[in-house]
Amino acid sequence: MLLGEVANRSGIPADECGVVLKTFERVLCEELTRKLYRYGGWILLLIGLFISAFAFGQISDRKGRPVQTIRGMVVDGDSKYPIPYATVRLSDKEGMGTTTDSLGRFTIPQVPVGRHTVEAAFMGYEPGIFREILVTSAKEVYLEIPLKESVNELSEVVVRARTNKEEAMNKMATTGARMLSVEEASRYAGGFDDPARLVSAFAGVAPSVSSNGISIHGNAPHLLQWRLEDVEIPNPNHFADIATLGGGILSSLSSQVLGNSDFFTGAFPAEYGNAVSGVFDMKLRNGNNQKNENTIQVGIMGIDVASEGPLSKKHKASYIFNYRYSTTGLLNLDGGTMDYQDLNFKLNFPTKMAGIFSVWGTSLIDKFKSDMERNPEKWEYLGDRSESRDKQYMAAGGISHRYFFNSDASLKTTVAATYSQLDGGASMFNHALESTPYMDLESRHTNLILTSTFNRKFSNRFTNKTGFTYTAMFYDMNLAIAPYEAQLLETVSKGDGNTSLISAYNSSSVGLSDRWTLNAGIYGQYLTLNNKWSVEPRAGLKWQATPKATFALAYGIYSRMEKMDVYFVKTKYGKSIRQQEPRLHQGATHHAVFRLQDFGPHESENRTLCTVSARCTGNGGQFLFRTQPLRLLCRRCACQQRKRPEYRD
What we know:
The protein contains seven helices and 33 strands. By secondary structure, it is mainly β. The strands form six sheets. The protein has a 16-stranded antiparallel β-sheet with strand order 16-17-18-19-20-21-22-23-24-25-26-27-28-29-30-31.
């Protein structure tokens, strides 16, 4: 009837009207689909903003004030064994506290929202303090508080609680290390919740605005070792090794799942090997094993969806995961595509007799494509007449098991696998819009890893840690670049095969007295690719000169195998470097770090008054010396005049 009415009013036959209406319907559907694809990202972004602004839960006390629960565990800092019946309290709130149960767990309910200081104490241990812990109404706070056993053997001793946010969680680190909390990453201006950008504010680390590449004491960013759950992993940054070798745009490890981590800038303990400039030792936290908590976060870098909760409340098993999708991928911007996404997770399964099992993983997918300017008259730069494409994949995961033989000995074993893939290419166009390839890259690396560590605390003065790591490496890579525009591609590096890296270490911490601590160890590794081995001694000495001043000196030798493609770079003789130089030496450096640290007055945070770092890098018989300038803090001006502390070289 409708078609007949249109035909009568328009004077056009009904058959022709039907064809026109069907054509109009098809064109309209195609246009709506195109608009939805182009602007659908904005719609999803607005929906996400609406949800994040209004969909949240809040717990209140009887007076209507928002409150939350602080839970956690108190453990021995050396053996990681739980400490039962320790006292835990909020030092800024009188009457709010509790004691740990037989498994070292504690719960403090009805804590007002805000920042609080949590203090834990137990007889024979130095008190531990966590300051400025942010308590929000949306999520419970979980803390793992390590306590250091006191080496004092006096009949009566007065212990003053001290906290040092610069002290690493690894107690065998003498100096050159700092603990990095997730909360700091979220508060750092311009940090994008990225831990790699937070460490750029540390002494000796050169910041970068365009990328989060970490250059320590002048070393290239790719010489930094990334570790997750005690396993070396590929660069976990989005678009890694594209703009900056060793850097990227944003870390794929979200602050939603990361726990407190250690960052080493020099003279690190013997358990860290195959690293030259520094080590970023990251940990994934356990999920809430009491109740489910879900988070939706919308920001300039993407949309995050996180969830955590119990898998079994009876057995205290938990899960946590976070997925993020890029904002740029949702918006579908013209002129190219830039799309990235990442996933992180951890499953924790504690048992009564068999120890603690955990399954963890991290992965990312990156896609980038740049389009050329189709109008040659608008060409001004080389990028206007070039097109490039890049696809990058990274994944790392494993199964870890920690078994406590008793309160003084534990064994941790991890079986893991890592995978990285990078496919890229670039083409140049002439004024006739004819393209010629300029670069072609295909790279795939797979590592199978077995690592095990035995930790034994013989007494309150002596702790030993021994371990080994076996890594089977499989590679398939091909890099070809045109020497000049419009010329044929030439192979730069090509290799296909497998090799192994074997390493072992022994590290000890000895309390010589209540003021002197000695950390010493040795590390060795062997690379089967070129039958090259190295033995690296490490040592550090710390002196508590006064209750307010600490001196620390550390030294060690460090080496790192080259990137795999370096061994297969083609020389002018048509051979690879591996064939021409079968005994290619691993890059090695000597680290020496001295630090003077002062405990601030009124229980304020400790301050590093002086740090001197020297490095000697051997490269083909030449030695390069790098020294970090001496930095002294004028505290008198800061305390008396209430001004910002001044640094003087």
